[in-house]
Amino acid sequence: xxxxxxxxxxxxxxxxxxxxxxxxxxxxxxxxxxxxxxxxxxxxxxxxxxxxxxxxxxxxxxxxxxxxxxxxxxxxxxxxxxxxxxxxxxxxxxxxxxxxxxxxxxxxxxxxxxxxxxxxxxxxxxxxxxxxxxxxxxxxxxxxxxxxxxxxxxxxxxxxxxxxxxxxxxxxxxxxxxxxxxxxxxxxxxxxxxxxxxx
Length: 199
Fold this sequence. Notes:
Layout: H1 9-12, H2 15-23, E1 27-30, E2 36-39, E3 43-46, H3 56-64, E4 68-71, H4 75-83, H5 92-103, E5 107-114, E6 117-127, E7 130-138, H6 143-157, E8 162-166, H7 170-173, E9 178-181, H8 182-193
Parallel strand pairs: 7-8
Antiparallel strand pairs: 1-2, 3-8, 3-9, 4-5, 5-6, 6-7
Helix pairs in contact: 2-5
């Protein structure tokens, strides 16, 4: 469901307004013409932090890999990496909005490095006990999966409640992602906002 019809898109991209929209369960995406729309689907996908899965192939791979996982080391390169595809919803205007939100401390990255090169990662928006996952990318096999696993472990360590991943994909399903209705999602949002978590 699109929720921003008739509203000033530039006004909605101010950090305070973006946070308020995320806090209600909305998220932005740019269309093919660069117009940024806000969506609030009735069915949401989450990875349950208390009941996730680690793919066996990833477990085996990580035992012998030389990946190094870093947090918040190169925000803009991660966002650019996620946008670097034939068709993307991450427009230049949205990247500028992310930069402003990042300065306020509400966007974080999990990065996979190999031989001092960024080879994969993900980013998302945080608000109290909720992490709203936005996008991920991978330049080498398993790099984005390694970042996602580290994110899940880290959010559990920090006592987060909600890991929102928006839409189901085969990639996310391997980690135990499930679809829930918006009523159940709202309950998780409320629970998340009672936690004074810091990423």
